[in-house]
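--- STAGE predict ---
source: upstream dedup step, 1 unique chain passed
mode: sequence only
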Amino acid sequence: MNTFLLATLLGLWSGIAMVFNLMGLGLRTALINGIMAGVLVGDVALGFEIGATTTLMGIGFYTYGGATIPDYVTGAIFGVVAGQRTGDSAIGLTVAITLSLLMTQMDILGRATTTIFQHAADKALEKNSIGSFEAWTLAGSIPWILSRAVPVFIGILLADNLTVLADFSANFKWFTDGLAVVGRSLPAVGFALLLSYMDIKKYWPFMIIGYVLFAYMNVPTIGLALVGAAAGFLYTTKKGGAQ
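--- STAGE serialize ---
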């Protein structure tokens, strides 16, 4: 697939995914974006790898009170394309992390420009013009869409220049090694946040079983998930029967 078509498709998807997100459908995630980019570049495994890693990095982050957070969802797209073009998933992850942070500026821009439409909608409502009010309210989604679609489109168009990033990575290995350490620590923080939500004092046997299966028996993540689902089903069924 040529670069222009890839940029167009990923840009459109980024805009459409934002609409889904505003509708509350929850289709705009780092994992889904990573897989989508992986399908389009012809490397689904890479899409899963970058998408899953950036998903873990984003665990615990949320726009509470309108706070701006790293856009790992968009970063996953850039990471997959960079990893495929350079042939190095580590470089792809580096790009994903870096651009996720840079995308915070686009998030701020999108939020700020939306207020223009909100004020117009308020004026229409004061005049009891319901049709105009609805139109301005729906138009308020335009800045959100463009804040993701345009950067992705332009960024993918420039993807052929990622060899410069690869050369930089080779010449400054200490820098990429540092980012790699940060990249590995973020998923750990995500897991720690998940564990903080759980009643470990009560369910510690399940945690130990999972640790033994992973650390000593090399059971992959999917296998652990299946074992966890089965254990959870048996526990809840037995608990329900006892009651």
